[in-house]
Amino acid sequence: MNTHLRRIAGALLLFAVITGCRRHAEKEHDEPTPSTTTAHEEGDKGHEGIPKHVKLDKRVIENAKIRVEPATKEVLAPTLALPGEIAADPDRSARVSSPVAGRLTDVRFREGSNVKKGDLLALLRIPEIGKVRAAHSATLAKAAAARANADRLGILADKGLSPAQEALAARAEADALEAEGKATGEQLAALGMGASGGGSELALRAPVSGTVVARDAVVGQPVSTDQVVASIADLQGVWFLARVFEKDLGLIEIGAPSEITLNAYPNEHFSGTVEYVGKQIDPVARTVTARIRLQNHDDLLRLGLFGSARVVAKQSVSAAGAPNAPVLVVPRSALTEVAGKTVVFVRTAEDQFELHEVTAGDASAGRVRIIAGLREGENVVTDGAFTVKSVLLRGTLADED
User: Fold this and answer.
1) How many C-beta neighbours within 10 Å does residue 311 have?
2) How do strand 67-70 and strand 379-383 relate by DSSP bridges?
3) Cα 263 to the center of its chain, rounded Å
4) Which NCBIfam families match (predicted)?
5) Most CB within 10 Å of its CB: which of 7, 210, 237, 276?
6) Is the pLDDT of residue 21 over 90?
């Protein structure tokens, strides 16, 4: 009997142990661990929206030169879309060549390097320099002897001891030799060589300051007078040469504001004005060239880049003949992107700014129409929007950390 009871008690104990283990396993499966809960909460926090408001210190506003202006309603002037390309200003560029044939002995510039006016670019050995210098010295010596002889004959002629004609002939010969000596001296000076010395190397120097955009110079290379060894251009200020079609020629004028977009930088915009309109029609393309000066900010512009210019046209009415209605506009510099959305920053207080998601419309010479997201009179950040955006995003990252 006791044995039977012990068997029943053992079975009950085993059943209790198995049931307890099963309940403990189910509890662990149903309840998340502390680490799992924290990760989930952090994931939800990371997907929160970007804040709409940012506060800047007054010193930051001053240092970043943040400026605002109210959004206003204006009549967007009609524009002409003109294709074209970037070109160097001929008055601020130069092609370097040698005035005489020679052979390069030293090259001290590279393509892409910046040079200043007067900088040494290369040295050429000119065998003929020795001959020119020798002829110059010989001519000066003959001129000195001829002048002394003319002076002597002049004195004798004054005393009646020599014919006056001989004195005049001697003076003429001395004048001719001195003129010849002066000419050879100027020739040496034009080559950058002194009248004295035994050197036969010619120094080629930069005629203008700028960037070397092309190089055709190797040590030991023979150089002729018609060969360009370097092309230099000042790329701080360049031209956009826009092509104006014949039918649009009456709509463009000097001084018209324009905005250029290049194929290489579709999100960048360069402002300029029309400086010159060509006087001759291209007989093949039936276009004239309109020259627009641009400032090369951030060193983005390269010679030969293609793009399009939107130039404000003369007319101020729509194609239908009715006056254009005023629309809400802001400067293009006010627009930026945050999280893939086009936004502007509105100043709500002296040191507080608010993000507004906007819908942009047509543009004209740096002014963009705002279809939605902004009200007339709101003070929009026009200069320094990048700084406001950076502070806003930096605060977002700090919150996530």
Assistant:
1) 29
2) antiparallel
3) 15
4) RND_mfp (TIGR01730)
5) 210
6) no
Backbone φ/ψ region at 274: left (φ over 0), alpha (ψ -120 to 50), beta: beta
More confident call, 317 vs 140: 140
Q: Please tell me which residue, 209 or 127, carries the higher pLDDT value.
A: 209
- Dihedral over Cα of 324, 328, 334, 340: its sign: negative
What pLDDT was estimated at residue 199? 55
Quick count: other Cβ atoms within 10 Å of Cβ 223?
Answer: 23
**Single-letter amino acid, residue 123:** L
SS3 (DSSP) at 287: strand
Q: Are 133 and 191 in contact (CB under 8 A)?
A: no
Of the candidates 367, 309, 378, the one whose C-alpha atom is nearest the C-alpha of residue 345 is 378
> What pLDDT is recorded for position 192?
57
Which tokens hold the place of 129?
A: 């320099």
- 245/311 Cα distance (integer angstroms): 13
Q: Are the C-beta atoms of residues 311 and 289 closer than 8 Å to each other?
A: no
Tokens coding 352: 């507080």
Tokens representing 371 are: 């279809």
**pLDDT tens digit sequence for 122-172:** 998 877 666 667 777 778 888 888 888 888 888 877 877 778 888 788 888
Residues 6+ apart with CB under 8 A from 222: 101, 102, 103, 104
- pLDDT, position 363: 80
Asked if 122 contacts 229 with a C-beta cutoff of 8 angstroms, the reply is yes
How far apart (Å, rounded) are the C-alpha atoms in residues 263 and 304?
11
| Distance from C-alpha of 51 to C-alpha of 397, rounded to nearest angstrom | 11
Residue 28 has pLDDT above 70, yes or no: no
SS3 percent helix, strand, coil of the chain, rounded to 5, is 35, 35, 30
DSSP code at position 196: S
Percent of the chain scored above 90 by pLDDT? 31
Comparing C-alpha atoms, which of 330, 400, 308 is closest to residue 73? 330
b/e burial code for range 164-174 (CB count within 10 A of at least 16 → b): eeebeebbebb
Residue 45 has pLDDT above 50, yes or no: no
The pair of three-digit structure tokens given for residue 309, joined into one six-digit string: 């210019």
DSSP helix/strand/coil, 236: coil
Residue 136 · residue 195 · CB < 8 Å: yes
d(CA 34, CA 104): 78
Dist CA 124 CA 105 (whole Å): 6
